[in-house]
Design goal:
The protein is mainly alpha-helical. The protein has helices at 14-28, 32-48, 54-70, 74-91, 94-102; strands spanning 3-7, 10-13. The chain has 5 helices and 2 strands.
């Protein structure tokens, strides 16, 4: 596996890492709508990887939700927050679950 990025302490494959880096850059530039779309692509790449990291996937979905919320697309934000919450519940990540509920 070609590795080139780290998110949340885990190594990401190149496709996921590239999307993640692009989304982070866009979010930092306050280009939230484009960032949300790229976070979604990052989550799709994570799901398609040989060994998807579910905790990272939940975080990517949560970030997409945050970006959609920031631009007032509340239904889309809720959709991605719920997906993140579902994964965090399966993983029994109590800290992440509390963040998900806070959103």
């Amino acid at each position: 596996m070609d590795l080139n990025a780290i998110q949340g302490g885990t190594v990401m494959d190149s496709k996921t890492g590239q999307y993640w880096a692009e989304a982070e850059k866009l979010r930092q530039e306050e280009n939230y709508l484009d960032a949300a779309a790229i976070y979604v692509k990052s989550s799709e790449a994570e799901q398609e990887s040989e060994e998807p990291r579910l905790e990272d996937l939940a975080f990517e979905l949560n970030q997409a939700g945050y970006c959609y919320y920031t631009v007032g697309q509340y239904e889309k934000a809720l959709e991605y927050y719920k997906k993140a919450l579902e994964i965090d519940k399966k993983l029994k990540k109590e800290g992440n679950i509390s963040v998900d509920y806070n959103n």
